[in-house]
Write a structure and sequence with these properties.
The structure holds two protein chains of two kinds.
Chain A: H1 2-21, H2 23-30, H3 35-51, E1 56-61, E2 70-76, E3 81-88, H4 89-95, E4 104-111, E5 113-116, E6 120-123, E7 160-167, E8 170-175, E9 181-186, H5 193-206, E10 214-218, E11 224-228, E12 236-239, H6 244-247, E13 249-250, E14 253-255, E15 259-268, E16 271-278, E17 284-286, E18 293-295, H7 299-304, E19 313-315, H8 322-335, E20 341-349, H9 352-359, E21 370-379, E22 382-390, E23 393-395, E24 399-401, H10 410-418, H11 420-431, E25 433-437, E26 446-451, E27 454-463
Antiparallel strand pairs in A: 1-2, 1-9, 2-3, 3-4, 5-6, 6-7, 7-8, 8-9, 10-11, 10-18, 11-12, 12-13, 14-15, 15-16, 16-17, 17-18, 19-20, 19-27, 20-21, 21-22, 23-24, 24-25, 25-26, 26-27
Helix pairs in contact in A: 8-11, 10-11
Chain B: H1 2-23, H2 48-62, E1 65-67, H3 86-108, H4 110-116, E2 120-123, E3 128-129, E4 136-137, E5 139-142, E6 146-149, H5 160-182, H6 188-191, H7 211-215, H8 227-240, H9 243-253, E7 258-261, E8 267-270, E9 272-275, E10 285-288, E11 317-319, E12 325-327, E13 329-330, E14 336-337, E15 344-346, E16 354-356, E17 358-359, H10 368-387, H11 391-404, H12 407-416
Parallel strand pairs in B: 1-2, 2-6
Antiparallel strand pairs in B: 3-4, 5-6, 7-8, 9-10, 9-17, 11-12, 13-14, 15-16
Helix pairs in contact in B: 2-12, 3-4, 3-5, 3-11, 3-12, 5-8, 8-10, 8-11
Classes of the chains: A alpha+beta, B alpha+beta.
Chain lengths: ~475, ~425
């Protein structure tokens, strides 16, 4: 009996070995290809994507977390070559160590390959002087006196990218060493690289104007975020009406062919934002949530009479129209007599020190901080400023009335008193309600200011 | 009965053993789970001709992979490196073959490199600048398997000196490491400069040209870092340095050297001095760089720190230490000397008062030239005895080739691959 137990156990063991030996077949049913085969397929898959439809892509490239991104245009050829075009200051430095720092266009051809590592990797594995300048260990632009003081760090940019995902002509990639997530978007193969890059550079100059340093992101819940210094493509942001010292956040951005994007998504009061598309009126609309917009804010209190007291305005002396134009032309012809010439009309915020400097003494009166200044040249080398305090009353987001006070200097008052047309013009400015509009609501550096209800009577103010 | 029971049980056991085999009989072990790896090159690739040339000239004869593309896994991830320029890589591959592999094949037979060459040659476009220490690596030999060459993008292939400094010297250096890692060189070599190596501060040792370390018995500053580097540098320098460069190093090795700070606060290393206005006392000692006493043949152009003080001589006329006008001449090294072979400069007083130039007394107690030559002899003998390599023949062949190579002709090899 004991023997049978032993033999029974042996048979059971043999049977279990039989089943165990067949497990491989079951695995084959699930993974019918080896890991390396699947990697090779992924390599071919991404190589085909890159070269498909003409093979031209825009890459939004970030070298590191401390500087903004750079747009590159890349054309992938099936023969293993890639032509990379860009327009930035470092391309200038790649050509000359003494470059002046302006964006410079450059295009160069090198090699590319999708290689397999832990996954498919896009590798720019031969030198491209206009792309690898961000990966070079050398200081660009040169720092220090000579090449022996190199730190070996450079911009620390990646030239190999993990290929993460492809969707809707967009490749999601991640720098292999720095792990910065970037995207590549397919571009019409017929576009001219230089025309494209020139357009991107022009885009960078056309919005986020440095003279409009603060703009607003408007959220669907009615809240706003201040975006400061967008022109640097390294904006800081904080929730409007909060203590910016506490709530400010700093971001890397990039101005691309379509608008603006942040390197990393940002949670703005519960809304995730990253990419913004430029609109015809100059505003930006969030791609992730089109209800989120970016503009310069209310034109009356954020721009013309900006609450930060930063902006100054010049009146365009050749752009008065309608009734206002008639009054202006009359005033101008009365002022411009003999050697006397109307030179400029400006409006800006004057703090007490500036104001005292304007009126030529110290003043303790309760005056408006905004001033309207007519500069009249009396003769060569001598001019008079007619300084008029302005007490603006704002309505809504685009309307205002100036409420102009008496001229503050004796010379200025005398000039107003002796030229009735000047007094009438000032009276018209001070008594009418005006409506402001701007062609570009993100960079309203030129304002159209018209009588409320009479758009034909208008003037143009240009940021100084 | 016992026997029949045994047969029954044995049969059962056999059946149990056979069943699993039978159940898997449709499994075939023949196919690998990995995809077939083929060495076939893509004839439509831009790099096809070059890749084919690399296969024919490195992979097939030597089993060497010439890696001209850079993947970060091929390099130290702590460094910021960039790939080599393709055209530079092509030229360097041709020169490496012509100035290294072909030379050893010709002199030492084609088996040597098949057996001892590194398996991978990796090119890197930039220097390897260590962000932590600030040091620069020009080449790496990893376990005799892989040699990495840096700074390829700055090579000027039409200037053999540049190619030597940037690549070929490093290759011969690293290859020497590979050889001595396989067979030790005599320890006698290590004893020649005991106590004079400085692994920490070798980069800042002495003058820029290396005269100070030459006088201590090292062929280069890097050689003075440690004995294994000393050995590799001695061999590599002997092979790649021209006669003029080698003899210059030996001449510098015979000099005495001293560190001195001039009136402007500049510290330097000097091997010559004179006495201001020929008044011989220590406070009048002015040390001068050699360049200040190296005159051009026609005396029209003087360079160096004392340029402002130097006026051209008329013809070959100059003055001796006593102020007497003498006829000078140039010695074999281009120095202006009088008939007694004394070298001259003009004093900083900007007057035609010649001063006699004295050599700094060699007080380091090392016959630098002799030590370098002893090291060379040890290396020469070891290479011949242990490897059958005639170092002088290698040097002669390299010297001839680096003087006479034609880059366009070499490039034709790649172009011919397309035929």
């Amino acid at each position: 009996m004991k023997k049978f137990q032993v033999y029974g156990a042996l048979m059971l063991l043999g049977a279990s070995v039989m089943f165990t030996s067949c497990l491989k077949n079951e695995e084959d049913d699930i993974f019918d290809k080896s890991a390396s085969e699947r990697l090779e397929e992924a390599k071919a898959y991404y190589s085909d994507i890159l070269t498909d439809k003409g093979g031209k892509w825009q890459m939004e490239y970030y070298a590191n977390g401390d500087e903004h991104g750079y747009v590159y245009l890349m054309t992938f050829n099936k023969n293993g070559q890639v032509t990379i075009s860009g327009e930035n200051a470092y391309i200038g430095y790649a050509d000359s160590r003494t470059h002046n720092g302006d964006p410079k266009y450059g295009t160069a051809t090198s090699l590319w390959e999708v290689v397999t590592d832990n996954g498919p990797v896009l590798s720019f594995n031969s030198y491209n002087k206009y792309f690898h300048c961000f990966s070079s260990p050398y200081d660009i632009p040169p720092y220090g006196q000579n090449e022996t003081d190199e730190s070996g760090e450079g911009h620390m940019g990646d030239y190999e990218f993990d290929l993460m995902k492809y969707s809707n002509d967009t490749l999601y990639i991640e720098g292999k060493k720095r792990e910065i997530k970037m995207i590549m978007t397919r571009v019409d193969p017929n576009v001219d690289d230089k025309v494209y890059m020139d357009y991107v550079t022009a885009m960078a100059d056309s919005f986020f104007h440095p003279k409009v340093p603060r703009v607003f992101m408007n959220l669907p819940n009615g809240e706003k975020y201040v975006i400061e210094d967008g022109a640097s493509q390294m904006p800081s942001m904080w929730k409007f009406h909060t203590d910016s010292v506490v709530t400010i956040t700093y971001h890397n951005g990039i101005i691309n062919h379509d608008g603006f994007a942040l390197m990393d998504p940002f949670d703005a009061d519960g809304y995730t934002v990253q990419r913004f598309k430029l609109q015809g009126d100059g505003s930006l609309v969030c791609v992730e949530n089109p209800a989120i917009t970016v503009d310069a804010g209310p034109l009356n209190y954020a721009i013309l009479f900006d609450y930060e007291h930063i902006m100054q305005w010049n009146f365009n002396l050749n752009a008065f129209t309608g009734e206002l134009g008639t009054l202006y032309n009359t005033m101008k012809s009365e002022v411009n007599k003999g050697t006397r010439r109307l030179n400029t009309i400006n409006m800006y915020y004057a703090d007490k020190k500036t104001y005292n400097g304007l009126v030529g003494g110290s003043s303790n009166e309760d005056y408006s901080h905004y001033v309207l200044v007519f500069n009249v040249i009396m003769r060569q080398g001598a001019s008079i400023n007619v300084i008029l305090p302005v007490d603006p009353v704002l309505e809504g987001t685009n309307d205002f009335t100036m409420h102009i006070g008496e001229a503050k200097t004796t010379q200025g008052a005398n000039l107003v008193n002796t030229i009735p047309a000047l007094a009438q013009f000032i009276e018209a400015l001070g008594s009418h309600k005006f409506h402001i509009s701007a062609k570009n609501v993100l960079s309203p550096t030129v304002l159209n200011v018209a009588y409320a209800g009479d758009a034909d009577s208008s003037m143009e103010l240009v940021v100084k | 009965m016992k026997l029949s029971k045994f047969y029954i049980f044995a049969s059962l056991l056999l059946a149990v053993a056979v069943l699993p085999l039978a159940s898997c009989s449709d499994d075939k072990l023949g196919d690998t789970i990995f995809p077939e790896v083929t060495d076939e090159l893509d004839p439509t690739a831009y790099t096809y001709n070059f890749d084919k040339w690399l296969v024919e000239n490195y992979l097939k004869p030597y089993n060497v992979k010439f890696n001209y593309k850079l993947a970060d896994i091929d390099a130290n991830m702590n460094y910021n490196l960039i790939p080599a320029d393709y055209n530079k890589a092509v030229d360097l591959a041709l020169l490496t073959k012509y100035l290294w592999f072909d030379v050893y094949d010709k002199i030492a037979g084609d088996k040597l490199l098949k057996e001892t060459s590194p398996r991978v040659l990796q090119l890197v476009g930039s220097s390897a600048l260590n962000p932590s220490s600030g040091s620069e690596t020009v080449g790496l030999a990893e376990g005799g398997v892989k040699v990495t060459l840096f700074n390829v993008n700055n090579l000027d292939v039409n200037n053999f000196q540049n190619v030597n400094d940037g690549a070929l010297h490093t290759m011969h250096h690293e290859y020497t490491h590979i050889l001595h890692q396989k067979k030790n060189y005599p320890t006698e070599f290590n004893r020649l400069s005991v106590g004079r190596y400085d692994a920490s501060n070798w980069t800042s040792r002495g003058d820029d040209e290396g005269g100070v370390v030459n006088s201590l018995g090292f062929i280069t500053k890097y050689a003075s870092s440690e004995y294994r580097e000393d050995f590799a540098e001695t061999v590599a320098c002997y092979i790649t340095m021209t006669d003029a460069q080698w003899n210059r190093a030996l001449e510098l090795a015979t000099r005495g050297w001293t560190s001195w700070t001039d009136a402007a606060g500049r510290e330097g290393w000097y091997s010559f001095f004179y006495y201001s206005n020929n008044v011989a006392n220590d406070s009048n000692k002015i040390y001068i760089p050699e360049v200040s006493i190296r005159y051009t043949a026609n005396n029209e152009k003087f360079t160096g720190d004392y340029q402002r003080a130097v006026k051209p001589f008329t013809n070959d006329t100059t003055y001796n230490a006593d102020g007497e006008m003498v006829v000078s001449q140039l010695d074999a090294n281009g120095y202006r000397v009088d008939k007694a072979d004394n070298r001259y400069v003009v004093d900083a007083s900007n007057q035609h008062i010649p001063v006699k130039v004295y050599p700094v007394v060699d007080e380091d107690e090392v016959d630098g030239k002799e030590v370098i030559l002893q090291k060379l002899n040890i290396a020469r003998k070891w290479l011949m005895d242990d490897w059958g390599i005639d170092l002088d023949a290698i040097r002669e062949e390299v010297q001839w080739r680096q003087r006479n190579y034609n880059m366009e002709e070499l490039r034709q090899q790649i172009a011919n691959m397309g035929n």
